[in-house]
Amino acid sequence: MGFVNGVPLRHLFFLVSCLLLALRAESTSSLIRRTAYMVHMDTSLMPKAFKDHHTWYSSTIDSLKFNNSGFENYQSSSPSLIYAYDHALSGFCALFSLQELQDLKKSVGFISAFKDSSFTLHTTHTPEFLSLNPSTGLWPASNYGEDVIVGVIDSGVWPESESFKDNGMSPKLPKKWKGMCVEGQSFNSSLCNAKLIGVSMNSARDTRGHGTYTASIAAGNYVAGANFFGYASGIAKGIAPRARLAVYKVSWNEGRYVYDAAAAIDQAIADGVDIISMSLSRPKNVPLQRDLLAKATFGAMANGVLVSSSAGNKGTDGEILQNGYPWVLTVTAGTTDRWYTGTLALENGLSITGWTLFIGNISNYRSLPLVYEKRRFMCDRALWEIPIGIIICNGYLPLSHQIQNIAQYRVWGAVFIANKSISSEIENTQHTIPCPCMIISSRDALALLEYVESTNSPLARMTFHQTVEGIKPAPIVSANALRGPSLLFPGILKPDVLAPGTLVLAAWPSKLKMEKGWRTFYSRYNILSGTSMACPHASGVAALLKGAHPEWSPSGIRSAIMTTANPLDNTHSPIKDNMNNLAASPLAMGAGQIQPNEALDPGLIYDATPQDYVNLLCSMNFTTEEISSFTRSRNHNCSTPSSDFNYPAFVVSRHDNVTPIVQKFQRTVTNVGEGAATYKARVTYPEGSTVEVLPGELIFRKKYEKQSYNVTISHKGNNDGEISFGALIWVEQNGNRAVRSPIVISPAIYPRE
């Protein structure tokens, strides 16, 4: 055991962990109401009813009374256990309110409790949010994606970034790799290494940042001390940190062309990549039979390469879901449980926490006057003069307009009052706030305005660069992500899954200038949002699964990701849609949030061969020539055309709101468990529907055995025109696996000609 100044390293790590949580959780009136405490317990007094210390600690915490006075919905409804320890120390670390702490002191075995706030450490966080860990699950099972090759088709790469160093990686490249490190302008072959094993498509030098960012999310190496001007400080790493990277540049400042992307896919297949990550959009208003990107990704699938792509964002990609091909993993974006915050400390002792990404340093600022105009439109219009103080903005215009207006002036500070939930407001801002400003909730605004009106000289001080984790609920589907169904294949559920895509920290070209308002700055890391950020998370998970199960097909990998996805958030409630704050439908979130560890052992998979995809194309009345452009041969077989594709979801399209409809499906599942298994069907019914599953029980006698079943969905019709949804879940008997497929009933949408 190691020691630091006489303190055992395990003890020191324990204390640092708890002190981290103490600082992170400590707040007064807004995001987090509880504080992390280290609690020492006398284990000799553990009641005999408990089988172990962890169970005892959990029961002790659950027995405490509490008051649910949280900030909107972002507050845990009960005390929360963080760590339990049995070796270095006897006790646990947990979040408590002061009243809960007083009640805890009366518990059997309680010795003492303390908090501290001397350390301020956070981790760059999405792998942890997805429950990836070095002890169990997909990371160790795949050896962190070692020797899986991820091809990133984007704007290139900044090879000097520490995320692309090859520390800890074997210099021996996989035998399947056939690619090269192609030199070009400002890029020579010496910049490649055991992590970044190949680049192609003229100069791979990234002049936009997007490619560097997405590549580091999918497969970036470990980097200590990563942060964005103090926010999200910690150890950066990709989802598959030991995977190899091959980068194909297809986006230049001068333009982006589909043929470049198609050529990159073609080259990636020839080079021997396992996974393609492609955060770009298909061309608009192009029918499928003329869609070059559709054909190139079809070719990747036929060659055993899974393509992961983004669902698209409102505004930049229009209003129609992108990349809705059945042979592609289509990924949409959700929030994480981490926020970036600042504190507004009032002179009366009250502190208010607000959301911000202001990057400047105002640590020397003294307390300033609070400036509030009751007529409410101060931040909606031009300022005739810049007041000395912190402006309180409570205007009528959308928050993004108010921020843009105030950002024109070098104000001392500003506080914006959210008209909706802060999560919704954040989506409509440009994230990096170009002034010393923060967004607070309407609830916290009541306390702020009460203080302002109670004194003739209200004062406050602002601090920034804070990071808070454990926000609830999370994930929430991004309001800016495009929704399904796919216009190309309305009978196939799209998007497929939800992945972290909001306010994600990742690598950035260090010499690429960024501008916000009147500020110009440079950074090795950046924080961005969008489905482009979600896609490489799923790409990384696919790479890990390929490493753990190299025999799985692209369809098998996608099936494992979909059927184990979680439709619930971290409060165990249905994931919400930030567009309307209601439960998200599968057309918004797909099957749910990806769960890498569960996808490692899905129990059953819905597999598909290239011929199955050909059968689907054959059902769409394409000509022989049009289908040949996908299959690359006139010898394709269209003898069994079928639109009932073996997909892990069921979509029923209503042609009107009143006519009853009955639709039948057939599915085949493959047992990828270790041996014999029995599964029984369990259905949650969409509103106004019945679902019949025959047989209702599937019995597998060995691994890789296949079983088929039939589903009949009857919908009586309704008058509201709304989407209704449910799920079919195959539950393993005497086991832990549950294989879930969404059921969606929605108004019909017709493919474009």
Strand order, main sheet: write it out.
8-11-7-14-15-16-25
- Count structural domains: 5
Terminal CA distance: 69 Å
Helix/sheet category: alpha/beta
What is the top-level CATH class of the largest domain? Alpha Beta
Classify the fold: give the CATH topology of the largest domain. Rossmann fold
Q: What is the overall pLDDT average?
A: 86
Q: If classified by CATH, what would the architecture of the largest domain be?
A: 3-Layer(aba) Sandwich
* Shape designation: globular
How many β strands by DSSP? 40
Full CATH superfamily name of the largest domain: Peptidase S8/S53 domain
> What gyration radius follows from the Cα positions, in whole Å?
27 Å
Number of helical segments? 17
Q: What kind of sheet is the major sheet?
A: 7 strands, parallel
In percent terms, what proportion of residues is strand?
25-35%
Percent of residues in helical segments? 10-25%
**Spans of at least 5 consecutive residues with low confidence:** 1-32, 66-76, 116-123
Domain Subtilisin-like protease fibronectin type-III: 644-745
GO biological process, one term: proteolysis
Domain Peptidase S8/S53: 145-569
Protein name: Subtilisin-like protease
